[in-house]
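Homework help board

Subject: predicted structure for assignment chain

Our instructor gave us this sequence and asked us to write out the predicted structure in token form, then describe one feature. I got the tokens but I'm not sure how to describe them. Can anyone check?
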Amino acid sequence: MMLLCISNGNIINGKGGVFLGKDILIEKDRIVEIGTNLSKKVHRVIDATDMWVIPGLIDAHCHLREPGFEYKEDIVSGTRSAAAGGFTSVACMPNTEPAIDNAAMVQYIKLKSASEGKVRVYPIAAITQGRKGKHIAEMGEMKKAGAVALSDDGDPVSDANVMRLALEYAKQFGLLIISHCEDKSLVADGVMNEGYVSTILGLKGITRAAEEVMVARDVILSEITGAPIHIAHVSTAGAVDIIRHAKSRGIPVTCETAPHYFSATDEWVENYDTNAKVNPPLRTQRDVEAIKEGLRDGTIDIIATDHAPHHIDEKEVEFNLAANGISGFETAFSLSYTHLVDTGLLSLEELVAKLSTTPAQILGIPGGVLDIGLPADITIVDTKREYIVNRDKFYSKGKNTPFHGKKLKGKVIYTIVGGKVVYDKEVLT
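My token output:
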């Protein structure tokens, strides 16, 4: 019988407990004991002295690109990248080709990831057929097939009545709608945040109103339908304010931001760096501070990567023509620790909640807690470890990151999925 012991680690269990210098005993795929001196007669011991043992990270928003865009990423490479980033579960968006808009496509993702993936994969299915925003997809069938939420991410549901109907139907099926809040008419042909930097660079800007108008609309629709809604990749101070006010009124809204929205600003575009081109765009320092405050006061519930890998040929072009997106799995924890915990804004326990416990709760999936009898999905991090980001070492096919060469603090050392060590000191197993 295979036994694994994580020895002498500092444990955050995801339900309010912090235990210093403790062991976790794993038998097959489950945690069987938490205590001291458990390393006797086991097949392998992981020495976690001076490290933190936390629930496996859970990403509620990523792009694995399969099917249709395997040249950017696929389930194999994407889940390898996720494992290297400390993620034990990821939820993948449906902007594939064809879109994940029917039960067969949901089943394909589940079967492919179960047989070839390094981590657990939960499909997010499309709200509308073909993600075209016109006709609602077969929600019930997709849920039966294993969809955990619905989104047309990559595109908004522009028609307000379609979104209202979608919320009403989703509520009946117990499915969460994740909204990509972007008014396309306000975006027009903009390519970065509208403001001083866009003016200086001579690039067409995207007004923050493009995000905020849609956030306000969807909050109102959530209120009148009583259906929960989750706002994706919040990037502006105004959006944070709208969501904070909605929550104070009891509207069932949750939201996420991504690490780049509290780690970088539109000034990162100054050298026309297409790796800093993302949707929604990087905003101003004022917005960054508002995002941080939203994380601190609980307005922003979780951190999701919005991992969006691209082929190098789609980034090494003129800024106007470059694809939007940042490859985010392998820097997410470090960016979050460096900018939120090391600065004193959040405790490590609060960060674990944002990156693991709460995402599991919002999606209604297992994980986010370490306890006896539960699956051994565990991440071990060294919060004292500093390193330089090197995109050439990414396991993702997508090397598109503006953080290449940046010094960060807090490093994922081990990732364990169902009792199996899948990432071992910078090496996938």
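Reply (TA_rk): Your tokens look well-formed. For the description, you could write something like this. The first strand starts at residue 3 and ends at 12. That's the kind of observation they're looking for.
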